[in-house]
Design a protein that fits this description.
- Helices cover about 35% and strands about 15% of the residues.
- By secondary structure, the chain is an alpha/beta fold.
- Strand 3, helix 3 and strand 4 form a beta-alpha-beta unit.
- The chain is globular and about 40 Å long.
């Protein structure tokens, strides 16, 4: 997470980024940040911290390609999944579907082989499973299991 992401969007594009996700909580002018990302030819995403309600996306949801819902507090890996995230995924999926949008829901933090099925059932499209993969005895097999869910 960075503060004032508008100061870095062009650098990310020049470094080869095709997608750029900014945290809602760090953007004073979220809509302007999304427009900037799109004007640079990138897909735009918005990340939400665990305490941030999904309703904060209602005015920009039609303009973005992805929502990265943090299911742990940002800062370090290995944290446990915050269970309330399941309800937030369901709320966000409902908002997206009711508006007929093509916005991906990505879940980042505490994703495991055990909770991945309920996360997917709630409406998630993309799972970030760092520790689950990299701390497993067989990362390739773990990835294959996650993909098969």
């Amino acid at each position: 997470m960075i503060v004032n992401p508008e100061n870095f969007a062009e650098q990310f594009k020049n470094a080869g980024a095709d997608n750029l996700t900014v945290h809602l909580e760090t953007c004073n002018h979220l809509h302007r940040n999304i427009q900037q990302i799109k004007s640079l030819g990138m897909k735009a995403g918005v990340a939400l911290n665990p305490h941030t309600p999904v309703a904060g996306l209602s005015d920009v949801l039609h303009e973005i390609d992805l929502v990265c819902m943090m299911s742990v507090n940002p800062g370090f890996g290995g944290q446990k999944f915050i269970p309330h995230t399941i309800e937030k995924i369901k709320q966000l999926r409902k908002m997206i579907d009711e508006k007929g949008l093509n916005v991906l829901i990505e879940i980042d933090g505490g994703v495991t082989l055990e909770n991945a099925p309920s996360i997917i059932a709630a409406g998630a499209d993309v799972l970030v499973a760092g520790n689950t993969v990299f701390k497993s005895a067989d990362p390739k097999a773990t990835i294959a299991k996650l993909k098969s869910l």
